[in-house]
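Reopening: ABC transporter substrate-binding protein still failing for me.
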Amino acid sequence: MIGIQKNWRLSLLVVGLLVACSAVPATAQLLTYAESGTPEDPGLGLLQEDPHDIVYFTNGSGGGWAKVRLLAFREMPSAAARKGTLKFQILGIETDEFVAKWTDVERIDFWETRLEREVAERIAREDFVGAYPFLSVLIRDYPRRPGLKELRCDFLWRNAIQRARTDQRAESLAMLEELHRYDSRFKQSNVLKAISGITDGLMQAMVDESELDGAQQLLARLKDDYGDFDLTAITKWDDQFLKMALEKRSEAIAAVRAKDYRSARKLARESLYLKPDIENGQELVKKIDEIYPLITVGVLQAARKYDPVRMDNWAARRAGRLLYRNLFEIQGAAPEGGEYDFLFGTARTNPDRTELELVLDTNKLASPLNKIEIDVLADHLTKRALPESETYFSPWAAAVTGIGIESPERAKCVLRRPHVLPTCLLQLNVDASWFGGEKGGPTGDYFVDSVDEKETRFMLTEAARRANSDDSKPREIVEVRCESGSDAVSKLLSGEVDVLDQLFPADALALKQRREIKVVEYPLPTIHMLIPCSDHEFITDKNFRRALLYGINRDDILNGELLENKRFDGCRVLSGPFPAGLSQEDPLGYAYDASILPRPFEPSLAKLLVELSKNLKNAEAERKKEPPPKLRKIRLAFPADNLSRVACEAIKSQWQLIGLEVELVQLPIGETYPEPDTADLVYVSAAIWEPIIDARRLLGPNGLAKSEDQLVGLGLRRLEEALNWKEVRDRLLDLHAISHHELPVLPLWQMVESFAYRRSLSGMGNRIVSLYQNADNWRLDH
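Support: Ran it again with your exact input. Result attached.
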């Protein structure tokens, strides 16, 4: 069969024995040649082998075959050229060179020919998944191979047909379009007919599922790509969208005549969305907006409570700004704490910061705010320092020693000691009772008109309407609850909503590519954490809380689940409850100690700490001669929004891996903190915008965490006694370290939030901390 420089049979025997005695499995080596038969078909395993040719020998020479390193020539030489000997190296025996007479060689199966045969055979039996890797190797290594173009076209054509038969329309269309781009002459009439048919079915399915944005984008692209081919589906659906748009426009006109401006607005926008170039479409929308300005806001978290300074409730904080004004309202971050505006005029401190003077200037304020009286203001400042008052705030009580009225427009607060930012202590809701009205009555420009599962309507008050001379201010702001981020984006693109108040980061990136949409980041981030909210025997143990934190792969959840593996500056895992700032120079990070690193994901350590906590609890019970406590399931509560749900589902699965039993509890719409004895931990997205006061609002005995820890309490008291910004920063860093050790809350990550709006809406502003901060200036432009 095979000739070698000396004795080929003896050489092969020696090689076989050496292989058999080596650490490498002999079977794998012996399969590279044989003295009879044919090689076993390795299937997809062929691609794991080194590229090789197979030389088959004649029966007269003894038969057999050998897998050899790629030969220098890539096709069988003619009979006349096959003279003398063929030299080759057998796979696995590269140290020896073998020689065979050409007369002993029956045929050679070349590597690329074998790949082509695999592709063709698998295509014939519709095994496209199996054919693809072989075809990919051919395209990569033999791009100029004769016949490769036809093979590739046949693969795309037959695969597209198969996918169409199994209702994989989008995949089938993608393959047909790839085929047309690759070789526009391949079965051109059949391919174009197939593209038209698949498009028709796909468009119908998208319209049936109300995926109109996707359907319109698809139709517009196909018109650009195949406009010269007169595809039936393109003509059909272009006419169909025009028909639907005309029907919506007719309904909108009828609604205008009936003075049903809410319906008219919705229908006119739907008409324009279906056919952007419909005749008089823009003019109809503009006319309706002039008659009855109305703005719709898509929200992921619906409001059921209204409080513009609520730390843990995004929706309450957002919607509360429409209904209520605040005595001091934060406008943004500055080098030394937040920037606050005094609602009723101007505020200033004396040089040594021991006095806060408030001066009324109500000329530019609308009713009822312009009716404020200095004695009423002084009374509310006093109540905030009285323990029996419902507006009592201990940091203000500790800071102020006297409040006096100096004139009908001027009040002065004398401070017990210098305070770096006394205005931040007076974020106090101003309701109608300040002006002789009903307690809890609104003082903003809007009031709640109606609330249901899908939407909340805020109507412009009569006072605000009288103050709006050109009648261009929105009569209504309607919050529409969206089921998910994708649902919200679809509503924004279709014109069903004008604004989205909160975006998934990946959606924000996608919307930035749309010319008709403006995406803006809020300047202040949210801090996400888990807060204990029950007397669960083990959660009260800080060793167990450490176990919970070590058992969460926070980096994976944040970057993989929430950010979808995209990079967003400012989004990061935290080691404490305070914001880290959006950059190293961000003044908002003054409370965060960057030298304290977040605890890593260490499930083995988490399990160890769980056992340690159990052992300590058992020992304590034995000492007290009580039954040992049982580690019962952990009830993890979360608000009814998609982001919180995704995060908590991931946390649950990771805690289960360390042996914990976990139950997820979804809170009612609008709620962010569970009722007593309904949950043990709650997922909170908090607005920690001013750590000087928010530290107590979060960690204090009356705060969200309700911490009774002595070290935490000491840290809060020392913070409130700070006399200058250096002391404030140093004591906040100490409090960060205490919180990292004691874990009154379990810090997760910091998120940079953003909102989006259609460019037809003006007056939004770019550095707003709350969506409705500039709602007074919102106008619909066309």
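The chain has five domains: 3-109, 115-230, 240-292, 325-435, 526-751. If you still see a failure, please send the error message rather than a screenshot.
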